[in-house]
Write a structure and sequence with these properties.
The structure holds two protein chains of two kinds. By secondary structure, chain A is mainly alpha-helical. Chain A has 13 helices and no strands. By secondary structure, chain B is mostly helical. Chain B has 13 helices and no strands. In chain B, α1 packs across α13, α3 (67-98) runs parallel beside α7 (158-182) and α10 (213-228) packs antiparallel against α13 (263-292). The chains are: A mainly alpha, B mainly alpha.
Chain lengths: 282, 293
């Protein structure tokens, strides 16, 4: 093999072990806090949560604190709420984004560039600054403390329109022309031909949408007053208020809230990671 | 450019607008209308209870004389200064690490990315266990003879701790952006440099960094905007304390609006933050444009 000429194998294997040690050390930095959380959530009452040196292995692991967190607050309710928020927001988000991005990529019309800039300007209207005026818009519409008030602001994002516009504009003209010759109207071309082609981009946006809705905290905190409509992240903040100094219950509740996102991530990680860099880089 | 050839069968002049109608409606209701309200409120003394009363430039006069705005502005700028090296430089090394051709490297990418997808609330809870007086960080520092510190309750340590949390949470995202950039670095240039006897550092400085210039532009803007609007982490970790040491502009706006119900004034501070962000983004755009040409 020609490659071997440049790389002495023996030194490489030592180097390789060193690199794995480094990789694992850095991994500890990133998952360490979650492991400490998990350890606090599974330690029996007889074992200290804190202390020097840190004692991370639960002996024996117990489920008490998960049960406690589950009953201290309406945990199941919060989880169901989050599923509802994700379940409604993400499909609507995908449809609206695709509909908006399509003409920006594939139809010639006056002011196309202006409309594109308009939607990109969303990037410069960050949610944090919109808290007050959106809260007032919601009260004007009579929607404060409703599921709709949480869902509506999440329907449009500049990233969604930007990525889908890219994807639509990369579809070869020949495919679309063939459909036109067959007499398909613009909506049929969009829905039956172009949308299936951009499915990978839609999948990425669905995952990103899921993560962002699942984690949303500040906006629901502003617009919701009834606990029965809280999403899970707000539930955790609520638990940290209710549980006060109960560090184990809080840890357990937090671990539960992480499970769905982590599972989805593990299942779809390849797609997320492969697309993320390219996505943000644009 | 596809689709730019004029009208075709099945298209009317209104076709693009029909497609964009839902998007435009959401834009109007959730972005344009609130933005107009935000600007109006900034010139009023609205407090939720009483009707909106316009007060001209009063809020901006008040803003100039409000010492806490200046504390918040200083903290936000400090936040940016500490945040930039942690998100613009450090993740490049992470990206180089996970760009190695090793078995199971994808698993490491995934682990480093994990904090990005978890909620700030959950991450903040986890960090309380780590940075607690009896937590792991103090234990490690204790091995070097340092006395334990309550990082989040200490006036000097609270802000750097919040910055560290934000940087840690976002590191994976910046890593992936760099990874995409690294994979576009021309490999023939790297090989040529290796054959010429360039060391790892020399290759990094003279080949990798120059070809990553557009990527740096993206990360710099993202990082600045992210730091400027830091709010959720402050809210869940310190509530702006102790003694306003973590009071950022974002948190100040929140507390004025939703704790003091001083919505008019909060909106004026919001406009200030908005202006700073636009200036920062514009400045970045200028700098990167000039270099690229």
């Amino acid at each position: 093999m020609a490659r071997r000429l440049y790389r002495p194998q023996r030194r490489l294997s030592v180097k390789r072990i060193g690199l794995y040690v480094l990789l694992v050390a850095v991994a500890a930095l990133f998952i360490g806090p979650f492991l400490i959380l998990l350890s606090a959530a599974t330690k029996p009452a007889s074992q200290d949560v804190f202390g020097f040196p840190p004692d991370l292995i639960p002996r024996p692991p117990v489920a008490d604190w998960f049960r406690e967190a589950w009953t201290t607050i309406p945990y199941a309710r919060f989880l169901v709420n989050s599923v509802i928020y994700v379940g409604i927001t993400v499909p609507v988000y995908l449809v609206v984004s695709a509909l908006t991005a399509y003409p920006l990529a594939r139809i010639a019309f006056r002011g196309r560039g202006v409309f594109f800039m308009l939607f990109l300007s969303i990037m410069f209207l960050p949610g944090e600054l919109m808290l007050i005026p959106r809260f007032l818009v919601m009260s004007e519409l009579g929607l404060t403390d409703t599921f709709a008030s949480v869902i509506l602001p999440a329907i449009l994002s500049s990233l969604g329109i930007f990525l889908l516009r890219q994807a639509f504009s990369q579809i070869p003209d020949e495919i679309v022309e063939a459909a036109r010759v067959d007499g398909a109207n613009e909506f049929a071309i969009f829905w039956r031909i172009c949308v299936p082609i951009v499915a990978p981009t839609l999948a990425v946006l669905a995952i990103l949408g899921f993560v962002s809705v699942w984690n949303s905290f500040i906006w629901p905190l502003v617009v919701l007053t009834s606990q029965s409509k809280f999403p899970i992240a707000l539930g955790i903040a609520y638990l940290s208020g209710v549980a006060g100094t109960d560090v184990r219950g809080l840890a357990a509740g937090t671990v539960i809230s992480l499970i769905p996102v982590v599972v989805v991530f593990l299942l779809l990680q390849k797609r997320i990671l492969n697309s993320m860099g390219g996505a943000v880089k644009g | 450019m596809p689709g730019l050839k004029g009208r075709v069968v099945g298209q009317h002049w209104y076709t693009p607008y029909v497609f964009m109608l839902p998007g435009l409606l959401f834009y109007a209701a959730m972005f344009a209308w609130p933005a107009v309200i935000a600007i109006q409120l900034a010139f009023s003394d609205y407090d939720i209870v009483h009707p909106v009363r316009f007060t001209g430039l009063d809020n901006f006069v008040r803003l100039a004389e409000d010492p806490r705005v200046w504390i918040a502005l200083r903290n936000s700028l400090l936040f940016v200064l500490m945040f930039l090296p942690l998100t613009v430089v450090a993740p490049l090394f992470l990206a180089m690490l996970v760009n190695l051709k090793l078995r199971a490297i994808q698993a490491f990418r995934m682990l480093y990315y994990l904090p990005v997808i978890t909620s700030m609330v959950a991450v903040a809870v986890a960090w309380r266990y780590v940075f607690n007086r009896e937590g792991v960080v103090n234990w490690v520092l204790g091995l070097f003879g340092a006395a334990p510190t309550d990082f989040l309750l200490d006036r000097h340590w609270a802000l750097p701790t919040v910055v560290l949390l934000e940087a840690w949470k976002n590191a994976g995202l910046f890593m992936m952006i760099y990874l995409a950039g690294l994979q576009a670095v021309p490999s023939d240039q790297l090989e040529a440099a290796t054959i010429d006897g360039a060391s790892g550092w020399q290759r990094l400085l003279h080949v990798v960094v120059p070809s990553l210039r557009p990527t740096f532009a993206v990360t710099l803007v993202l990082s600045m905007l992210e730091a400027m609007r830091a709010f959720e982490s402050v809210y869940v970790l310190t509530r702006g304390g102790p003694l306003d040491s973590t009071l950022t502009l974002g948190y100040y706006i929140w507390s004025k609006a939703f704790e003091d119900y001083d919505m008019g004034y909060a909106s004026a501070v919001g406009l200030l933050l908005w202006a700073i962000m636009i200036v920062l983004a514009g400045f970045n755009l200028l700098v990167t444009r000039r270099r690229d040409v």
